[in-house]
């Protein structure tokens, strides 16, 4: 996830959304069925927090760690 909001600092907020059972996997997100009175996480994020997630591709440097282990005692 890349933050392009331009906001700085820390924020504390709560979202109310339907946790429904897991649905099928799409390419980017898990699609969950919505109950009759609930909203999806993405709708709640936009309506309640004023934020929107946009799918995009980006070229960036990535650090990949193939393995890790404790050092040998000397």
Features:
little secondary structure; 0% strand
A few lines on this structure:
The chain is largely without helices or strands.
**Poorly predicted residue ranges:** 22-27
Q: What are the secondary-structure elements, in order, as H or E? A: H
Let me know the number of strands.
0
Straight-line N-to-C gap: 41 Å
Question: Helices and strands: which structural class?
Answer: little secondary structure
**Biggest sheet character:** none
Number of helices: 1
Strand content: under 5%
Spell out the blueprint of helices and strands:
Elements: H1 41-49
Describe this structure in words.
By secondary structure, the protein is low in regular secondary structure. It has one helix and no strands. The chain starts with 40 loop residues before the first helix and ends in a 25-residue tail after the last helix.
